[in-house]
Write a structure and sequence with these properties.
The chain is an alpha+beta fold. Helix content is about 65%, strand content about 10%. The relative contact order is 0.08.
Length: about 325
């Protein structure tokens, strides 16, 4: 992958992280308050307050970071700095949630211990959806939030806490695998969208180049569908007959633009072209914008789609009024 595409990928990954940040922070505040309220009766009050204040401070700082990002809308050259800021916030937040194993973990109440595990586990599950765009934020958060709690359950040493430790360890392994899978899916989706956008830009550029070539060709060129409606008329032909392309595309009666005789001859030649496999050649007279009649050598050929079905007719006209200048550009 070239450097520009790598930078574009990273920029989009960081953008997704900041896009998901506000909702995740709201969930953080709600869960923190609920955990604080439930554990208040069994945990050390001072430590509980310190923990809650820490969560509130880091969450508010991360809200400010998200606000600044959306306000500034940094470009690709600033992506690395904003990625670092985001990762630092995740590391600190993960450490604060991990500290529940020390500050909000009552050894006397297995019910409250399980509730701590429930809340921290829920935070980690939610982090998978909001932090998986890049590996550092999600895995730093999971490791710092879950590892201390797993160790704490094992250190208590009872049968139930050991079982809880095993369950949390299994949960950590499974959720890490899901986070890795989610990261890969997000990366792949971004790469597919980026490649699709790049291909669309290439196609658009190609169409613009073809348009320039067709408009400046020294012959008249047009494309008409099998329904008789014009889909394209180049500038050379439009300038020659004095009719804008939009009028060709809008008309259902060619006679309104080129006159009865010229329209009848054109429709007859189109019909004959559809009846035969090889290109159709004809000489037709058109009145140009200068008011003079010009003899045209016109070649028509059928246009087919991938299935071989005829979808229209392309016409190429050369002014042969003056045989000394056969094939000259329309004037």
């Amino acid at each position: 992958m070239d450097t520009n595409r790598v930078y574009s990928l990273r920029h989009e990954q960081v953008r997704l992280l900041y896009e998901a940040m506000p909702l995740a922070l709201v969930a953080t505040l709600i869960n923190a308050v609920i955990l604080f309220a439930v554990e208040w009766s069994v945990a050390e009050h001072l430590l509980s307050i310190v923990w809650l204040v820490s969560i509130l401070i880091i969450t508010l700082l991360r809200f400010g970071l998200a606000f600044l990002y959306h306000r500034i809308q940094p470009g690709r050259d600033q992506t690395h700095h904003w990625e670092i800021y985001f990762s630092i916030g995740c590391i600190v937040a993960g450490a604060v949630w991990g500290s529940t194993s020390l500050l909000l973990f009552p050894e006397s109440s297995i019910t409250h211990q399980v509730f701590v595990a429930f809340i921290v586990g829920g935070m980690c599950a939610g982090a998978v959806t909001s932090l998986s765009a890049l590996p550092v934020p999600i895995f730093s958060f999971l490791i710092l939030a879950l590892t201390p709690l797993i160790v704490r359950f094992f250190t208590v040493g009872s049968e139930i806490t050991n079982a809880m430790g095993v369950m949390l360890l299994l949960f950590f392994i499974m959720i890490s695998a899901n986070a890795l899978k989610s990261h890969r899916n997000i990366r792949q989706n971004i790469e597919l969208r980026t490649e699709s956008k790049r291909q669309q830009e290439i196609i658009l550029q190609s169409q613009l180049e073809q348009q320039v070539i067709l408009d400046n060709a020294p012959v008249g060129i047009w494309l008409v569908g099998v329904d008789g409606r014009y889909r394209f008329v180049n500038r050379t032909f439009c300038d020659a007959v004095g009719v804008p392309e939009n009028e060709f595309l809008a008309t259902t009666h060619l006679s309104d633009l080129l006159g009865e005789e010229a329209a009848a001859n054109s429709l007859q030649s189109d019909h004959e072209c559809l009846e035969k496999e090889e290109p159709h050649h004809s000489h037709e007279t058109l009145t140009f914008a200068d008011g003079k009649k010009h003899l045209m050598d016109i070649t028509r050929a059928k246009v087919r789609d991938k299935a071989g079905k005829v979808t229209g007719i392309v016409g190429i006209a050369v002014d042969i009024s003056d045989t000394q200048f056969r094939g000259h550009r329309f004037l």
